């Protein structure tokens, strides 16, 4: 018998911490390889963390609601042997790329190992998942042991209430407030700092609440202080890095999309459904990137200089607004998908984003991004490049505007396309050529799709 400690793994995208939402196992319980042991919430989404070892839970390192650091102990398991462990008896935190590779091949000498190498659900060997299912069936077939009167019931695992930041949890502890008793005033019931302060006020209605502190810069009362944490911190870090490192330039073009809307209307009338404008735009963007590969690239430091890495395939990201902030899900191998297939995958990822169920893989690895800010009523914008990509293309709202058609003035459906690009990877000629190609496809979608 040996003790093996499994650390909170690398969750991808440079994330360094996660909030423990719930334990899915209890101390003294037997766990199987790849069995989910905890649910954690990162700045990106909620993730179930599986255990890569089989054994008995000895110690759970952390309390529900606590913020855990990547690489720090998560769970200690008593195992029959430590063949699957490293030389120090600890399961090291795998990087996201290692997690991806974990499911591609299993060395022959490791096929009988009790540790699968899994870190996040969906990565690892299929054989280990089969062993897990067999063990569950075997345990289910065994008669339940007699329960003595002295045995205590295992604690019921509950999910931690959703709060806007770890500082809110700390404030609740200091005020002696039970978070599970509160109904948050934020989006989706999110518990805010104001909710904690309101719960901490005396119940006597004649007692006046203490005045909020004044802002030192303006002298005005402070309505609320919200820590830059979680997804807000991740967004701030990413966009600051983009603005700091990438010398970007912006080009835009007005586009008549009357024919595109007519095409969508015809498809919907004939089939009951049609790809969204974003799906058509994504298909044309992918085609444009094949013609202008400079924009499907990134800058990489080599230690002695920099290289432009042009990529053969296209992983297309798209901006999605959720109740907790902006995320960029990624459509893998977008170059191999039709407009209908892109539409289906965009919808699936957008739904998962709103439910907070996106995986680390679905939120990383993009090579170019599209953004439909027209849904917010904006005509145009200067989008910030999603570092380390080389470009982002945005589309504004579609409105009726006067337009010259065949020498005559007409009312047409017009929008504005904007591209922000990394001026290090290409010049305005390539960016303008790419933008004009996408605009031409949007104006004449039938002819464009016939060639794709």
From TrEMBL:
InterPro entries cross-referenced by the UniProt entry: 2-oxoA_DH_lipoyl-BS (IPR003016), 2-oxoacid_DH_actylTfrase (IPR001078), 2-oxoacid_DH_E2_comp (IPR050743), Biotin_lipoyl (IPR000089), CAT-like_dom_sf (IPR023213), E3-bd_dom_sf (IPR036625), PSBD (IPR004167), Single_hybrid_motif (IPR011053)
Q: Which family does it belong to?
A: Belongs to the 2-oxoacid dehydrogenase family.
Q: Name one GO molecular function term.
A: lipoic acid binding
Q: Which residues form the Lipoyl-binding domain?
A: 3-78
Q: Where is this region: Disordered?
A: 79-167
Q: Which CDD domains match?
A: lipoyl_domain (cd06849)
Origin organism is Nesterenkonia sedimenti
Q: Give any Gene Ontology cellular component.
A: cytoplasm
Q: Where is the composition biased (Low complexity)?
A: 79-88
Q: Please name the Gene3D superfamilies in this protein's record.
A: 2.40.50.100, Chloramphenicol acetyltransferase-like domain (3.30.559.10), E3-binding domain (4.10.320.10)
Domain Peripheral subunit-binding (PSBD) per the UniProt entry, residue ranges: 163-200
Instruction: List the Pfam families.
Output: 2-oxoacid_dh, Biotin_lipoyl, E3_binding
Specify the enzyme's EC class, one word.
transferase
Swiss-Prot/TrEMBL keywords: Acyltransferase, Lipoyl, Transferase
| Protein name from the UniProt record | Dihydrolipoamide acetyltransferase component of pyruvate dehydrogenase complex
Recorded E.C. number(s)?
2.3.1.-
Q: Which cofactor does it need?
A: (R)-lipoate
């Amino acid at each position: 018998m040996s003790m093996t400690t499994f650390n909170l793994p690398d969750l991808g995208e440079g994330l360094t911490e996660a909030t423990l939402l719930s334990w899915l196992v209890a101390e003294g319980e037997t766990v199987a390889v790849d069995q989910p042991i905890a649910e954690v919430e990162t700045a990106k989404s909620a993730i179930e963390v599986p255990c890569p070892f089989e054994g008995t839970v000895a110690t759970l390192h952390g309390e529900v609601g606590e913020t855990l650091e990547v690489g720090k102990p998560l769970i200690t398991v008593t195992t029959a042997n430590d063949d699957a462990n490293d030389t120090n008896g600890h399961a090291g935190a795998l990087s996201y790329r290692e997690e991806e590779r974990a499911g591609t091949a299993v060395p022959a000498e490791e096929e009988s190992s009790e540790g699968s190498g899994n870190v996040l659900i969906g990565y690892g060997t299929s054989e280990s998942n089969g062993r897990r299912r067999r063990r569950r069936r075997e345990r289910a077939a065994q008669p339940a042991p007699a329960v003595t009167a002295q045995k205590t019931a295992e604690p019921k695992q509950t999910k931690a209430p959703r709060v806007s930041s770890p500082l809110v949890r700390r404030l609740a502890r200091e005020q002696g407030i039970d978070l599970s008793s509160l109904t948050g005033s934020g989006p989706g019931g999110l518990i805010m700092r104001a909710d904690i302060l309101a719960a901490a006020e005396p119940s006597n209605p004649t007692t006046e609440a203490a005045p909020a502190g004044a802002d030192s810069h303006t002298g005005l009362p402070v309505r609320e202080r919200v820590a830059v944490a979680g997804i807000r911190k991740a967004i701030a870090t990413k966009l600051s890095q983009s603005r700091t490192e990438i010398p970007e330039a912006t080009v835009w073009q007005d586009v008549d999309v009357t024919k595109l809307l007519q095409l969508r209307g015809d498809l919907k009338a004939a089939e009951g459904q049609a790809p969204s404008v974003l799906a058509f735009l994504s298909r044309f963007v992918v085609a444009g990137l094949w013609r202008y590969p400079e924009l499907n690239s990134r800058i990489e430091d080599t230690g002695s200089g920099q290289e432009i890495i042009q990529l053969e395939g296209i992983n297309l990201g798209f901006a999605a607004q959720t109740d907790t902030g902006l995320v960029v899900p990624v459509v893998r191998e977008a170059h191999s998908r039709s407009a209908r297939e892109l539409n289906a995958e965009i919808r699936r990822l957008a739904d998962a984003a709103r439910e907070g169920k996106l995986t680390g893989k679905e939120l990383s690895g993009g090579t170019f991004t599209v953004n439909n800010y027209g849904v917010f009523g904006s005509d145009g914008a200067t989008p910030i490049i999603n570092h380390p990509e080389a470009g982002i293309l945005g589309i504004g709202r579609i409105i009726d505007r006067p337009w010259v058609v065949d020498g005559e003035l007409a009312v047409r459906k017009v929008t504005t396309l904007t591209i922000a690009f990394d001026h290090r990877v290409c010049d305005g000629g390539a960016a303008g050529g790419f933008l004009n190609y996408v605009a031409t496809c949007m104006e004449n979608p039938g002819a464009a799709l016939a060639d794709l």
